Amino acid sequence: MTASTTRRTAAKSRIAAVGAIAVAGTMLLTACGDQTKSGNNSSETKGSTAADLLPPEIKAKGVIKVGSDIAYPPVEFKDKSGKTVGIDPDLGAALGKELGVTFQFENGTFDTLITGLRSKRYDLAMSAMTDTKDRQEGVDSDTKKKVGEGVDFVDYFTAGVSIYTKKGDDQGIKTWADLCGKKIAVQRNTVSHNLAKAESKKCADGKTIAMETFDNDLEAQTRLRSGGADAGSSDFPVAAYAAKTSGGGKDFQIVGEQVQAAPYGIAVAKGNDQLTKAIQAALDALIKNGEYGKIIAKWGVEAGAVTEARLNGGS
């Protein structure tokens, strides 16, 4: 998902209706990006344990504050007891164990997370955030103007974007072009929002895409469920999870093709190189010892797994 974004290049895979989140992992296979290209600086961390690389002030506190939009199942969300759960919290707990600190997830609106890093409200942002050059450079993806210092990313997963509709009522929607003349409900300032804006400019005969935007993806799902929109869109694991769980699997279906495969990254404010290296080393250690794979498998999205912790691998 993803404050102003371009991917929550096109890489596509045909998607059938989702029956279980485990299918999400399988379907992600053809959309996964190449995790072996240049951009990995893990050699810089060799010879030291991840904990040794942590900044002294974080070691002293024993806590890493993580900004996250905790309304994006299965990546991060509240369970019935109110506990924060999901892929990111599980990885955060494992990273914390590797580093000897506690990852403390703090809820925030997605498009304020990078600002929170700049203001030092958070040490990290971990929220299914897509690693893009614009984010790395602090550039607004709409205006292409410099709006901040940018962030560094430690990439930890790969995902694409999907469209979904009410189950049994796809209204002929199979591609983004099919949304012309229709309304889509999306989370504000995500890749889905950006894709809708870009596609709307291509629509012919004045049939643009009407967009209703929300603070979080669950609100967008509610709008679609109530009949207030024709379709919704979100990152594929999230859309697949919604199709599987909402209304006992009776509310939504994924339609068309998955597009825009790109890495999720753990965001760190520019200049915090020591923290970035520590996170990268800890993630590499989890990948090598198998703990990372167990967490990804738990949520049924193995095909989105990476094989190494890359730094700023997004485009």
Quick recap:
The protein is α/β, with parallel strands linked by helices. It is built from ten helices and twelve strands.
Structure description:
With 315 residues, this protein is α/β, with parallel strands linked by helices. It has 10 helices and 12 strands. It has helices at 21-28, 56-61, 87-99, 113-118, 133-137, 191-200, 217-225, 236-245, 273-289, 291-298, and strands at residues 13-14, 63-68, 77-78, 84-85, 102-107, 124-125, 151-166, 183-187, 210-214, 231-235, 252-269, 310-311. Helix 1 (21-28) runs antiparallel to helix 8, helix 3 packs across helix 9 and helix 3 (87-99) runs antiparallel to helix 10. It is globular and about 60 Å long. It starts with 12 loop residues before the first strand and ends with a strand.
Compile the SSE list and pairings.
Blueprint: E1 13-14, H1 21-28, H2 56-61, E2 63-68, E3 77-78, E4 84-85, H3 87-99, E5 102-107, H4 113-118, E6 124-125, H5 133-137, E7 151-166, E8 183-187, H6 191-200, E9 210-214, H7 217-225, E10 231-235, H8 236-245, E11 252-269, H9 273-289, H10 291-298, E12 310-311
Parallel strand pairs: 2-5, 2-6, 8-9, 8-10
Antiparallel strand pairs: 1-11, 3-4, 7-10, 7-11, 7-12
Helix pairs in contact: 1-8, 3-9, 3-10
